[in-house]
Amino acid sequence: MSRLASRNQTVLPFRVVELFKEAVGLQAAGRDIISLGIGEPDFTAPPQVLEAAERAGRAGLSGYSPPTGLTALREAIAQFYGDHFGAPVDPSRVIVTSGASGALLLAAMALVDPGDEILMPDPCYPANRNFIASAGGVAKLVPSTAAARYQLSAEDVRSHWGPATRGVLVASPSNPTGTSVAPSEMAALLAEVRDRQGLALVDEIYLGLSYEHAPRSALTLDDGIVVVNSFSKYFHMTGWRLGWLIVPPHMVSAIERIASSLAICAPTLAQHAALACFQPDTLAIYAERRDAFRARRDYLLPEFERLGLRVPVRPDGAFYIYSDISDLGMNSTQLSHRLLHEANVAAVPGHDFGPAHADHTMRFSYAASLERLQEAVARMEKLLKG
């Protein structure tokens, strides 16, 4: 048998996917599983988006697009960033990708050399480490704390930057914590990276799902960073596989060259459909759905505290609650297993997001309906109080 490439040894498992597969197996056996595990909105694309996809298909608009995406879509994304996130950008800096995963892969391939270290907070989204590894880079996890909102700080950059460090990758709001980096702290962090002539990759996939303040892109603080975003979460188009990068002008041609070989282009019908996301009536739907996510969070937070699922930092965005289960007398793997098999509730153990808090934390997604969340709480209470 042919041997596998050695890089396979560095690819970390994604336990969310394994949990999802296990839950699906139990559902197939007749169990009613409530998923608080995978981060996928229960909302799907609004009718306007579906109708746009159908029109594009009937018109035969399914051929390749330019590697950087449809011009009209790049213009719409640029305007959206200016109108909603306070960061007007030139459409030529927008690169449409095959999901945020495609965006991160392209960014890593274009900007990370073998051996380069990229600083990330622990906890963080596990696949990000694999994107860096795919380019030969090294993800250097920096343990964070509740006091720092589980985010990378300017002090972390000063303390952990070494000879091999190339830059940072931060997410605001974050998966798994739902916490954002405060604007003053983000400005200080980006200044530290800039002073070292480093790279700043900022994941803004959940920026539209900000609940406590008007969302503002990190581009308002530093126009030289690389921003990643997606149509999956705020726009509820997970399976359409569509995202984007916003990059400094000098990076566009290099990333375009790589994109034309690795992906040719993002799915064209999905691009035509996504144009409908930015219509006023569609944006109104997304605003209503954001309010629904906020209501779910506000229901769960006191319920979790009552159940002993302490929440050290109140999440201000995304649709995740990062709980400390230290008081429950079991580790996160044990609790995840018992929730799934005894309470029929799927939730993710902290091991997926880094070692610093792995044993005593769990991530719960509130991307399910309020009624299902209420049922999940009742099931968890029966298990935990029993």
Automatic annotation (TrEMBL):
<dbReference type="InterPro" id="IPR015421">
    <property type="entry name" value="PyrdxlP-dep_Trfase_major"/>
</dbReference>
<dbReference type="GO" id="GO:0009042">
    <property type="term" value="F:valine-pyruvate transaminase activity"/>
</dbReference>
<keyword id="KW-0663">Pyridoxal phosphate</keyword>
<comment type="similarity">
    <text>Belongs to the class-I pyridoxal-phosphate-dependent aminotransferase family.</text>
</comment>
<dbReference type="InterPro" id="IPR015424">
    <property type="entry name" value="PyrdxlP-dep_Trfase"/>
</dbReference>
<dbReference type="InterPro" id="IPR004839">
    <property type="entry name" value="Aminotransferase_I/II_large"/>
</dbReference>
<protein>
    <submittedName>
        <fullName>Valine--pyruvate aminotransferase ## AvtA</fullName>
        <ecNumber>2.6.1.66</ecNumber>
    </submittedName>
</protein>
<dbReference type="Pfam" id="PF00155">
    <property type="entry name" value="Aminotran_1_2"/>
</dbReference>
<dbReference type="GO" id="GO:0006520">
    <property type="term" value="P:amino acid metabolic process"/>
</dbReference>
<keyword id="KW-0670">Pyruvate</keyword>
<dbReference type="InterPro" id="IPR050596">
    <property type="entry name" value="AspAT/PAT-like"/>
</dbReference>
<keyword id="KW-0808">Transferase</keyword>
<dbReference type="GO" id="GO:0030170">
    <property type="term" value="F:pyridoxal phosphate binding"/>
</dbReference>
<feature type="domain" description="Aminotransferase class I/classII large">
    <location>
        <begin position="32"/>
        <end position="379"/>
    </location>
</feature>
<keyword id="KW-0032">Aminotransferase</keyword>
